[in-house]
């Protein structure tokens, strides 16, 4: 198809950068912490506020706003009725005391870029081969409700709606109740046939900064093994209770935490491990802990190593339980496979970066993203901009404005390339 009727390929303008800057600043204010970060957990009052602001902005820009049953927010811009959709987005929820760039950049950046593209195509509507949509996925972070990636996983069918809505937070509140309380339990939406999914994100790692590159194009993601492990002992007085008779669940948890780190030290940088959360009961300084739950993560590009660890480390936790006279249960074991992102989209992104004179490099992503969920459903691309010092999930998380704008430039170029080309028959 010829695009000669379009005088120039759509580009971001100063007006578009300003629109993004304002929308991103709005996001950064809602749930802001004194140290410059965000505390905006899923279905909290702050999440409601940012969702309301986002929906208002979308409506003002001419998007048709829809909310599905798991609370995902879609802003739809129909350019060619009946054609598939180019979907872009990320998430607006944050970690506790987290950063203001993680996720929010991908949502606000996508919204501003799609609005700019739609405006520039308005004079040439017949040229568009796809429709445009932006999305805010519910509970990507998995901070208040586990697992992570809930909204995108329900959308793709990887997690059932009933299972997702039944997830509970630390206070026993279900996700269904929490979404209803903030007014974001939506309804079943018609199927949204996708041509592709594109996600902008800060890198959350040091590689782009270390290599002096402006853009990272993710080609694949690491696999992950996540465990919730609970040790149960016996509550007792920390003073007179004999040491030899104690059944201390916290001691078992502490030994497990050390063992988790030891696995990373043993395997080197091919394995990342962590225990990011520890829950104890009754959590009193004068009481021997009767129950302790640890949240374990192993991440690696080597799936065989993770499968090996699943067997060997479970045996090690049994040994720890025996040595501490506790009982152990391994609950909620989750395995996320290593995933290749669409090679054709990645190559297009690298080519568009070159056309824009942006220095770019292919990357592996160690972290999970909604693009991983979508990659099982449609061709997906994940585009990174640098994170200062590689710091993320931290109030001091930072990416320079110029780098944010460069990400928008690449997203616009990639969208323009896709929307002006005939849709392949298999996605039409």
UniProtKB/TrEMBL annotation:
<dbReference type="GO" id="GO:0046872">
    <property type="term" value="F:metal ion binding"/>
</dbReference>
<comment type="similarity">
    <text>Belongs to the peptidase M20 family.</text>
</comment>
<keyword id="KW-0614">Plasmid</keyword>
<keyword id="KW-0479">Metal-binding</keyword>
<feature type="binding site">
    <location>
        <position position="91"/>
    </location>
    <ligand>
        <name>Zn(2+) 1</name>
    </ligand>
</feature>
<feature type="binding site">
    <location>
        <position position="102"/>
    </location>
    <ligand>
        <name>Zn(2+) 1</name>
    </ligand>
</feature>
<dbReference type="GO" id="GO:0016813">
    <property type="term" value="F:hydrolase activity, acting on carbon-nitrogen (but not peptide) bonds, in linear amidines"/>
</dbReference>
<dbReference type="Pfam" id="PF07687">
    <property type="entry name" value="M20_dimer"/>
</dbReference>
<dbReference type="InterPro" id="IPR002933">
    <property type="entry name" value="Peptidase_M20"/>
</dbReference>
<feature type="binding site">
    <location>
        <position position="141"/>
    </location>
    <ligand>
        <name>Zn(2+) 2</name>
    </ligand>
</feature>
<dbReference type="InterPro" id="IPR011650">
    <property type="entry name" value="Peptidase_M20_dimer"/>
</dbReference>
<feature type="binding site">
    <location>
        <position position="201"/>
    </location>
    <ligand>
        <name>Zn(2+) 1</name>
    </ligand>
</feature>
<feature type="domain" description="Peptidase M20 dimerisation">
    <location>
        <begin position="225"/>
        <end position="321"/>
    </location>
</feature>
<keyword id="KW-0378">Hydrolase</keyword>
<dbReference type="Pfam" id="PF01546">
    <property type="entry name" value="Peptidase_M20"/>
</dbReference>
<feature type="binding site">
    <location>
        <position position="393"/>
    </location>
    <ligand>
        <name>Zn(2+) 2</name>
    </ligand>
</feature>
<dbReference type="InterPro" id="IPR036264">
    <property type="entry name" value="Bact_exopeptidase_dim_dom"/>
</dbReference>
<keyword id="KW-0862">Zinc</keyword>
<feature type="binding site">
    <location>
        <position position="102"/>
    </location>
    <ligand>
        <name>Zn(2+) 2</name>
    </ligand>
</feature>
<dbReference type="InterPro" id="IPR010158">
    <property type="entry name" value="Amidase_Cbmase"/>
</dbReference>
<protein>
    <submittedName>
        <fullName>Zn-dependent hydrolase</fullName>
    </submittedName>
</protein>
């Amino acid at each position: 198809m010829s695009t000669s009727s379009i005088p120039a390929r759509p580009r971001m303008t100063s007006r578009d950068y300003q629109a993004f800057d304002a929308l991103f600043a709005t996001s950064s204010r809602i749930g802001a912490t004194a140290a410059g970060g965000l505390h905006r957990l899923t279905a909290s009052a702050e999440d409601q506020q940012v969702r309301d602001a986002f929906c208002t902005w979308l409506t003002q820009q001419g998007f048709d706003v829809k909310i599905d049953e798991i609370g995902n927010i879609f802003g739809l811009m129909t350019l060619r009725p009946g054609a598939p959709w180019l979907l872009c987005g990320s998430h607006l929820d944050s970690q506790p005391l987290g950063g203001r760039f993680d996720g929010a950049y991908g949502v606000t950046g996508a919204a501003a870029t799609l609005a700019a593209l739609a405006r520039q195509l308005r004079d040439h509507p017949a040229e568009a081969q796809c429709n445009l949509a932006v999305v805010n996925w519910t509970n990507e972070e998995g901070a208040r409700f586990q697992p992570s990636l809930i909204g995108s996983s329900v959308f793709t069918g990887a997690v059932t709606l009933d299972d997702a809505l039944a997830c509970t937070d630390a206070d026993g509140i279900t996700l269904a109740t929490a979404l209803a309380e903030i007014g974001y339990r939506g309804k079943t939406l018609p199927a949204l046939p996708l041509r592709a999914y594109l996600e902008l994100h800060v890198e959350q790692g040091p590689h782009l900064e270390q290599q002096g590159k402006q853009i990272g194009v993710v080609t694949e993601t690491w696999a992950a093994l996540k465990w919730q492990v609970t040790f149960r002992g016996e509550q007792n007085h920390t003073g007179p209770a004999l040491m030899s008779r104690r059944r201390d669940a916290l001691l078992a948890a502490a030994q497990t935490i050390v063992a988790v780190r030891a696995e990373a030290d043993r395997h080197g940088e091919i394995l990342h491990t962590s225990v990011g959360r520890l829950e104890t009961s009754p959590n009193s300084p004068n009481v021997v802990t009767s129950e302790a739950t640890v949240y374990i993560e192993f991440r690696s590009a080597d799936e065989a190593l993770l499968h090996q660890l699943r067997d060997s480390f479970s045996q090690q936790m049994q040994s720890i339980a025996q040595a501490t006279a506790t009982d152990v249960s391994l609950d909620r074991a989750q395995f996320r496979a290593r995933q290749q992102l669409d090679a054709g989209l990645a190559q297009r992104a690298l080519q568009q970066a070159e056309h824009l004179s942006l220095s770019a490099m292919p990357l592996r992503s160690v972290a999970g993203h909604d693009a991983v969920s979508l990659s099982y459903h449609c061709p997906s691309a994940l585009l990174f901009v640098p994170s200062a010092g590689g710091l993320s999930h931290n109030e001091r998380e930072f990416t320079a404005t110029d780098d944010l704008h460069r990400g928008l430039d690449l997203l616009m170029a990639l969208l323009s390339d896709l929307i002006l080309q005939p849709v392949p028959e298999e996605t039409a």
